[in-house]
Every structure is written in structure tokens, then in C-alpha cells.
Amino acid sequence: MLKKLKNLISHKSKVKLLLFRLKFKSNSYFNLKIPNSKKRIFIFLAADYGNLGDVAITYAQHKFLSSTFSDYIITEIPISQSLMGLEHVRRIITKDDIITTVGGGNMGDLYEHIENFRQLVIENFPDNKIISFPQTIDFSETISGLNALDTAKSIYSKHKRLLLLAREQKTFDFYQKHFPKNKSLLVPDIVMSLNRVDPKFERTDAVICLREDKEKKLTNEQHSELLSIVAGHYKNYTFRDTHIGTNFMGLKTRVSELFSIWDTFKKAEIVVTDRLHGMIFCFVTNTPVIVLLNSNHKVQSSFEWIRNATNIHLISEYSAKNVQNAIDQIQSDTFENKKQNLLPKFDEIKEIVLNQL
């Protein structure tokens, strides 16, 4: 009976109750050291789980903030410690501190738990500048999705110093329509600000980096056909996913795993992927890649930022012929071109945060 009752309570209600209980505890429960500095930036929802795309977003966001706001101390609050971190920061926050939430593709009702945590951050720091780093937004057209959107509109719109960054045009248009009271800006995925071309390695064989989750678009038959085509052109191929299935990773482990997959890509003649950050990792390492679409718009939309990159070959409609043509093009190309620099695309963020929020 008790278990059934718990299942009736929403995730947001549960976390609000837990957060309320934390208000009566001492600070000793939170083991992260936060510097006592006049200028601090906090990164909430920092990825400490096995999705290396999200780990890369956290890494790139920290790197961007450190270089852009060089007189601030940057502190990550891991998503696994969201409630404890939120309450701890709430106790020590000053009006000059800046709050950020990580970018990604988790704004909406598809990843409800993360969206709930984001909204709690926004609600609990009403007087601070908040930057929501580049997101893809995805509220479903279901009744629950529309209700979730109404809740988000209410919470976001109440915050007067919230900057919403969109990583593709569709999300930016959504922000403009549904969150007109908040300032919004169109910029690339923050990982695209990185340059991981060096050190260079000898390239051999192929790497397959394909989804096996709810965002997968390829059928099982297409998947098998694709592997057969790749096997016909490359002596060997290996599987490497951007999701490694590990949780609660420390900072050193996260960075080590990130550098490992970048090195794997830099050693490949070709990568075949339908993962957004599979594509982006190839962009930042200048690795030849065939990109297939996933079940939503984020791969296609984010490709617009890098469509001029000579190493990226997007197949908008799967067919054996299209895959074959892409491989032929890659094998005939020289791909050691200078990597496109997207860092200037982010320049406006600092001006808005310091002078307009």
C-alpha cells in the first residue's frame, strides 16, 4: 500500500519534499569544497554519469566559463548531488554569484527528472543571474507534455535575470514564442567551442557509434545492412558508444573517459554515428564521419552549424546507396583541413550576462 502511495506522488513533489527537509540539516552533508570568493559561478546539473556527450558539455561549459569570465571561480555541482548542492549554495549565495545549468537535450518532458531539477534551480535563485546553456527543447504534444510546458513557462517567465541559450533554430523559435519575457540567444552546442585536433594519430579502420535507445531511428535491418557496407570497405571496425553506462563518476574519471573516446575517434579512418555528440566529437577532432539521423530533430538541426565542415557527411535519408556514396567521397577526400572555429559564435554571451541581465 505504501509503495502504491509513493508511486502516486510526482517526482517534482518528492524532490521538493526532500529539499525542504535539507533546510533543517547542517552543511556537513555536502562534501564539495566551495571557495569563499567574491566572484563565483556555479554549474548545476553537471554530468557525473555515463553519457559522454553530457560529460563533454559539462567539460566544455566549464572551460568556456573559465576563459570567458576569468575573474570568477567556477564550481560544478554534480547532478547526483543536485538537492544537497542546491541547498548548500542557497545558504552561501551572494547577489554577485552567477548560476548556470548545463546544456544538452534534456529540456522538456522527455527527461522529466532533469527538467524538474532545472526548474528548482531557477526557483531557488530568483535574484541571481542564471544562464541555461545551449539546449534542445522538446515538450511533447500530449496532455502531460502541454501541462509540463505550462509549468515551465510559469517558472521561467517569473525569473527576470534568466538567459536561455538555444543550440539550434527550432529551439530558439520555441523560446521566442513561449518564453518572450526571458532573454534568449541562438548559439551552437557548447562542445563545438572545443578544438581537440591535437595530438594527431595514424588513422586506421572504422568506428561504429550507433544508438540503442528510444532516440534510435534505424531499423534492425538497416543496422545490419549498414555494418555489411562498412565491413566491405574497411578491414576492421569496432563499436564505441558515447554512453558508457557508468554513474557517479569523479572528475578525473569523467575527463579520462572523454579524452579516451576523442583519441579513439582520432585514430579512425571513419566514424559512423547517429548520435549528436558522435557527430560533434568528430567535428572537434576533425575525424571523417557519416552521420545518420536520430528520431528527433537535434542531429539535423545542429548540423546546420557545421554543414561547411569537410569531414562531416550527413545522410538525411538512409539508403545503402547514400551510405556507399558517402564512403566513396570520404575515401577520395583529404580531411586534414583546418577545423572550423565556432568559438566567436559565443562572444555575445558575456556582453549579455554582464551588461543586460
Would you give an account of this structure?
This protein has 357 residues and is α/β, with parallel strands linked by helices. The protein folds into 2 domains: 9-193 and 344-355, Rossmann fold (3-Layer(aba) Sandwich); 206-332, Rossmann fold, CATH 3.40.50. The chain is built from 13 helices and 12 strands. The strands form 2 sheets. Strands 1, 2, 3, 4, 5, 6 and 7 form a 7-stranded parallel β-sheet that branches. A 5-stranded parallel β-sheet has the order 9-8-10-11-12, sandwiched between helices. Helix 3 packs across helix 9 (251-266) and helix 4 packs parallel to helix 5. Residues 1-6 have low confidence and may be disordered.
Please describe the biggest sheet, giving its number of strands, its sense, and whether it closes into a barrel.
7 strands, parallel
DSSP helical segment count: 13
CATH architecture of the largest domain: 3-Layer(aba) Sandwich
Number of strands: 12
Task: Report the sheet-strand fraction.
Answer: 15-25%
**Helical proportion?**
40-55%
